[in-house]
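Thread: sanity check for a docking pose with zinc ion

Original post by kr_44:
Hi all, I'm comparing my docking run against an independent structure prediction. Below are the sequence and the ligand SMILES. Could someone generate the full complex and paste the structure tokens? I mainly care about where the ligand ends up relative to the chain.
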Amino acid sequence: MMLDPLALTQALVAQKSINPPGDEAPIAQYLKGILEPAGFSCQVVTLGENRASLVARFGAGNKPALCLTGHMDTVPLGQAPWSRDPFGGQVEGDRLYGRGTSDMKGGLAVMVCSVVEAIKRHPQLELVLVITSDEEVGCQGAKLLWEQGHLDQKVGAILVCEPTGNLPDLGHKGSLWLEAICRGVTAHGSTPELGVNAVYLAAQKILVAKDLDLGPERHELYGRPTLNVGSFKGGLNINSVPDKASFTLDIRTLPSMSHQAVKDWVQQALGPEVELRWIIDAEAVEVDPKDPWIEECLGLLQARNQEPVPQRGGVYVTDASVLWRAYDRPPVMVLGPGDFSEAHKTDESCSVSKLYEAQEIYLEILERWARR
Ligand SMILES: [Zn+2]
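Reply from moderator J.T.:
Ran it for you. Here is the predicted complex with zinc ion included:
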């Protein structure tokens, strides 16, 4: 009997893994409990208190493996009240409700159900599943797996099961998040001439950041780089001259942009009086649309949908930012059953029929991988 993607998604949604704190370890153990009896060799990698990632391998290791990847953590529930139980896995019509249904316990469940079925049909498959913790705050779980030497095998392609509504994204942009800190000298609010106001300095620098020109380059898959000042903090109380203010920069980069070079360039534009700190550094993933595996996947999707599949890349970041580099830059396709527009929302949901459709797509991709 085939494992059921809906039932498994509901089981994963019921296991709370809001990051922070994450608490992914019980889910890693739970998935090991499915994959190990099926024939996978599983390694649960502990990454902190009640936190773990799971690397599951299948095959003799003679040929490059297909890597399938997904993360177990979810974002918090947010301020607004939910109208359904976020951990209840309630189904209404074609919608399954709960935190992580779209991003991305649905994708994770379909991935596990599909590989367990595929290795029965094609025992010659070579697979590695990288099931991560701590993705939502900058791919930290994947980075630790790489640093600790767990991403060491030969991988021929990466399928990222993040939410795309079952349409393919060929790689994605990078995310560079920086904090800019401005310092001044505090004084009593009645004698501002005795101090240096850090909020004024930060306000000037924010306007410099707003007008930074990231260049005219437009990538055929990823479009243009973007920059946004997302938050500002400054001052302690109304009657003091503030001696510290800071703001954050969210820069979405193209594959051609080195994050160190971008940071150096921002530093130069803002001047030496601004201290720049890294928050998130996840570089872009570049994919050649003419790669044979990509062409094969696009071909099978085109045949299924009976219409041309748009060639596009993602504007978001996934763990592939780390995995692509660790595995020596194989082709990367992001395709999963969740809806990207549902990710991180109140009353998050996913389409039940898309779970089953994704399972059919994954099984076709796995069948073709087995024939290599
Ligand atoms: Zn995600």
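Residues 71, 103-104, 162 surround zinc ion (CB under 6 Å). Hope that helps with the comparison, let us know if your pose agrees.
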